[in-house]
Amino acid sequence: MYNEISWTIPELSSMKRYPEKLYSRGNLNLLTQPKISIVGTRRPNPYTRAITFELSKNVISNKKRECTLISDNGGISHG
Q: Under DSSP, is residue 53 helix (H, G, I), strand (E, B) or coil?
């Protein structure tokens, strides 16, 4: 189930045009934690796929720091 976000997310306020509507699913408390974002293409080449996989694997396996991983790189970095 998706819920509409009714408040401003500070990390998104630097966007040229803030989204009119945002939806969420899951634990929104994670938005207050340190995070990393991997932004890319929906059709990554083999090199991009390999690098994204390694980067996201290393971030997720790093037990020293909790983080939220959000990506649009062909779903490669989704845990």
A: helix
